[in-house]
Amino acid sequence: MSRSSSAVSAAPSGAQRRLGASPAPRRQLRRRKELFWAVVFLAPALVAIGSLRIAPTISAVVSSLYSGFPGGVRPPVFSGFDNYLDLWGNEAFRETVLRTVVFNVIINPLQVAIALLVAVLMTRRIAAPGLWRTLVFIPAVVPIVGSSIVWSIALRPDGPVNAIITALGGRPQPFLTSPDQALASIMLIASWIGIGYWMIFLISGLRAIPSEYYEAAKLDRAGPIRTFFQITIPLLKRPLLFVLVADTVANFVLFVPIQMLTNGGPQNSTTMQMFNAYRTTYTYSSKNLGAAEVVILTIIMLVFVALQFRLLRDDDRAAKGTS
Amino acid sequence: MNRRHVLAAASGIAALALVGACSSGGSGDSGDSGDADWSIPDTDPTATIQVLGHQDADGIQEVIDAFNEDHPTITVEYESVPFDQLNSVLDARIGNQDGNPDVFWADQPRIPALAARGYMTDITDQFAADTGVWDPAPLASGQYDGRMWAVPIANSTQLLYYNVELVEAAGDPLPSAAIEDRMTWEEVTERAANAVEAGATNGLLFGQVNRYYQLQPLPMSLGGSAGGTGDDLLTPDVTSEPWVQAMEWYGELFAEGLSPLGVTPEQSDAEFLTGNTAYMVQGPWLLPKLTDAEFEWGVAPHPYFEGGEVVTPTGSWSLAMSAFSDEREAAAIFMRWMSVEHGGGYAANYASPELPASPEGKEQYFQRDVFDSDAGRLAAEIIDFETSNTAVPRLQTVGFVEFEEIIGRAFSDVANGADPAAALESASSELETAWAQYR
After folding, report:
1. By CB distance 3.0 to 4.6 Å, which of A8, A158, A320, B204 could disulfide with B192?
2. In whole angstroms, what is the distance from residue B184 CA to residue A177 CA?
3. What is the pTM of this model?
4. Are residues B240 and B97 located together in one domain of the fold?
5. pLDDT tens readout for residues B355-366
6. CB A296 within 8 A of CB A252
7. CATH number corresponding to A82-322
8. Are A300 and A97 in contact (CB under 8 A)?
9. What span, in angstroms and rounded, lies between the C-alpha atoms of B36 and B39?
């Protein structure tokens, strides 16, 4: 709200200025030239967004309204919302949706919280900060296929993780082979990769907080916990929410570890919507149904992201108030 | 700032819509079927054909070189894709309808599904004169809906391999290679337990662990069906007593530590070759690799359940022509050369071929070096017998793609300790949903 009012107040003065300098065709020419170059420079990005993002999305929505024989050769026929009704009537699909939502409700706050914790640690005065940061960031640099392979070996029933557990006197765990532990194992792997990556964004956010605030807090004798919650968190809200939104998107479309490690099993315990859509589209070649699954996933994701943007808007108001 | 966030999130969201993007295709004619408006010419055209297969391009090059000696005017461009991706690559390529590939490797049980999808050219008339060349089972595997869609280049069967040292260490007599002395699964289980007790890492290893191809004989030996019933074999039948019983036996192998979890089909040959496995069920393609084995090995016929039927897996690869091939004549000449001429040019020229699909090809095949040893000669006899007497094809249904995937997951769940009856029940309901679209 504050933003729109400031925009309104800015408009008349700008218009006045323009009117005042008006009869200069040269300036108009320059403006036109600027516009031309703006279009030229923006064109590649716009074309890419149009052809790689918007067109496929529209095409997926259209495709989801058709039903056809598996494979891409026989022409599909328009069937309205049949695909959606079929999916909704399918218990396995409903379970997949629920599983995806639960997975995201757990993993996103968890990843962001740990990434924040690590980021705060890394910005403290510690020995060799570059080394530690690199170590935490390395998993994000390793291609996800590579880290999936490494984890598949590490978590094997006779693998090194169980060897460590046994050596410490524990009982070996089934990890990816148990329907009770597979999803948690996937979360562990996704977080191992994600935490270091999101940490980098949060570190830059922490660095941007002016030190005066901390000095003021110190003068007011605020303890470290109070300082964290009343200074760090409010001033970090923007990068924090960006990380939360981007992390949510990444986890909703998480695919590689699932395909490589569990193939959706055991007993469908790691079948999430993205993997399910892939399986429907490519394994079963039911492209129209797969498109419907993608559209449903997109809608659920949009709801999540919209909720998070609401938080972001509040943040805007708060930020305006403080600054 | 705000807008940048929106863009970042929106582009992320839209990224997944790419999965849906490939679904847009859809218009255009479906592949035309079968009027004999073309035939295999007597003189070779000058043409280039594109061939898509799952085998390593280096290995296939020898075969293509041999083809070019016979047919110098036809250029073959071979492209290899991994077995697991062949299906999705075919979907994408043939969906483009641009004549690439002209010829592709077709997994035999998938032929009805691929033909029904309109991916294949009907070759009934063009190959009518050749049908007598192949063994009956591989020939039948290329037929669907009364028409012929693919020519077989290979066949397969399964044998029970054993590690002589480990069997002897367990104090058991060596299994006989004679068909009449075929062991039961009960006996093999007992022997596997003895071997593990005597120190073997694996008692019994399924080379194609959790794959329907290798496990189909288990329920069938107990009197079960191939997994589907009804006119089009589109009614799931995987929860019957024989299926449950077979899966209970299978699950126990893993629960009792006789079979290893986590050895994939790609790793199983190497696992046996390390010398830590007493018994292994695997196809004839293991034979050439065994010449490098540092232990003494032997073969026995594929086991069966006591009191049950003797059933062995069969089937392999065929070549099919894309419905959109723009070089049909050259493509057909290549297919015919690969599967018919010289007992099958593929089997005759590939360094480590699968079992040929024709009697003439098999004759040449058994003359290869691997069959020169005592164990090799016994293996040849078993292979010869099984392919013509006990082989049962996989479920011949348009719904095979879904079936293979869903039942494979159920097998894998059972191996990981799921309750067999519950796993099969859940597979059955998944199949019910997946097959609904074909009925």
Report:
1. B204
2. 29
3. 0.79
4. no
5. 899 989 988 888
6. no
7. 1.10.3720.10
8. yes
9. 7
